Amino acid sequence: MASVSLLEKDHRLLLDRRHRVTLAEYHRMAEAGVFGVDPHIELLEGMIVARATENSPHVLATDLVQSLLTRLVPPGFYVSMGNPVAIAERDSEPEPDAAIVRGTPRDYTARRRTARDAAVVIEITDTSYDLDSRVKTALYGAAGVPIYWLLDLNRQRLEIHSDPSLDGYRRRVEREADALVPILLDGVEVAQFPLREILP
After folding, report:
1. Residue range 78-107, pLDDT digits in tens
2. Per-position DSSP letters for 104-141, written without gaps between them
3. pTM of the full predicted structure?
4. Which of 144, 169, 153 is nearest to 97 (CA)?
5. DSSP 3-state assignment of 89?
6. Which of 35, 91, 106, 121 is 20 to 30 A distant from 51 in Cα terms?
């Protein structure tokens, strides 16, 4: 009991002594089976972070996003669901709910997808809004992902972040449930859809 109260009292001291995990170390640990068969984790800024458990609305929204994007994304890009995006310079490997990636899946047979390969990254959020809107917005922006969509299920809206910089994104637009959402890939609008189509 004493050790618990000590941890609670001195948690800042412990946080200052954290060991940052590099992306290479993270991959070696995964290959060695350290995380088990189906780890629900991701690497963010050198820290191994538990991913939020997906509830029914989140699962439905993910399926709706997959169905919609698969219909609308043109050749030269493909839809990747829940797969890691390596950001070596930030010791990070987030696993966004969806991404529109340049090329075809077989282009990545011999290498990992990186932030430079992603045209759009999509996170679907309900319980993890603070993490997705702060840490991941800064991370994806600094890594140069052109567009980051944050689908906020609690507020029934889409945040579209664009114009990436080392400090995150310079531009943020919100779309409400009845709005039309453009799909921009490398500066070209390839389609539009009503936001309601991907809201549970």
Report:
1. 999 999 999 999 999 999 999 999 999 999
2. -GGGGSSS--BGGGEEEEEEEESTTHHIIIIIHHHHHH
3. 0.86
4. 153
5. helix
6. 106
